[in-house]
Amino acid sequence: MGEITSLFAHKVARQVSPGTDTRDVLKSLGLQPDGPVEPSQVVAAEAYYDFFAELARRDPDGLTLPLRVGASMRCDDYGAFGFAWKTATTLAGSYERAEQFGRRLTNVSTYTIETVPEGGLLHLHRSGERHLGLRLSNEATLASVASISHEVSETQFVPRAVYFRHEAPARTIAHEAHFGCPVHFGADRDALLISAERLEAKNRLSDQGLSAYFDRHLKEEIANRAREGTLDQQVRHVVAQRLSDGVPTLSGVAESLGIGARTRHEFLGRARRVVDQLSRALRRFGDELLRAARRLGLQTLRLGLSARAQLLRIDVGLADEGQSFQSVVDAARRELSHQLLRETDYSLAEIAFLTGFAEQSGFTRAFKRWSGQTPRSYRLAAQ
Fold first, then answer.
1. Phi, psi of 41 (to 5 degrees)
2. Are 268 and 290 a contacting pair, CB within 8 Å?
3. Is the confidence at residue 366, as pLDDT, over 50?
4. Is the dihedral of CA 266, 241, 311, 370 positive or negative?
5. pLDDT, tens digit, for every residue of 308-323?
6. 8 A C-beta contact, residue 157 and residue 96
7. Would you say 96 and 90 are in contact if contact means Cβ atoms under 8 Å apart?
8. Whole-prediction pTM
9. What does the pLDDT look like over 269-278, one tens digit per residue?
10. Helices 65-72 & 132-152 angle (0-180, nearest 10)
11. 3-200 falls under which CATH superfamily?
12. Is the pLDDT of residue 15 over 80?
């Protein structure tokens, strides 16, 4: 089944015209309108396309909604992928990251780079019927690529041309204004055409060392996600079969999968040790990561526990007979946040992303749930 990061759904909802109701449509995707944005959370692709189309219909200026979404995107919104894009040596290097790691954001679209006499074509490949939601999504995707290309360029980024397979909407003036070049509809491709000079121009924040680091991080994350998805599918299948008899226990599901109690407890113990190691590593390398983040101007560096926690979590709503993976992760995040609040002068936003939250508001809510007070109040009391 095709999936897309929930980050894009939240971005679409935030760019609708004032007064347009979005809450019920977000909830239909299983997303909380006022909840934290977790890029690792995904939604079904077809449901996302329907969501996009519905908001465009509700919006008085729905034709320009995908352009507003694209204009709002920043490299930092994409997490590690955005940091790899930002620190690549050239724009061509950024596009190579899209070609290699784009599936981290969705498994329904890919990118390829083609060299042509006029420069280079960055192709967007997305299969499916060209209904309204998919057309809007394609426009938003290429508009986003243009925005983050401009963000990393030392001079103004303007593609030579933009191509869409679908037919033109009723008005296209806004499209040409956003891209700053001719926009061709009814074409044989979905792509941006960029000059060779622009592709080879040095990125504003290029850093080979950091780019290599994020490349490794993304490769590990994609490999881990593939392994996790296989186990998740097995567990969900067993749960679906047993729901008619009530919510199954973890031991019951483990038994169906051929995992004994001893193996399960050994795995939980191993999970706890891994989380402890991650906490120590974050404390040891926190200063170095923050210095790099500040130098690059990265506001949402999510190198905390959330990405690694995906390896430890089998969160399928099961009634656990002991400590769950999520509770282990929560405990590690809680302990680390307490230490950072007591012993450092990091801002709350910095502590939020060091503990794996995409937004400070999500960290504040979690901390109040853990400690019964706000992070600011805890820090003041600890002084």
1. -80, 135
2. no
3. yes
4. negative
5. 333 333 343 334 434 4
6. no
7. no
8. 0.61
9. 544 544 454 4
10. 30
11. H-NOX domain (3.90.1520.10)
12. yes
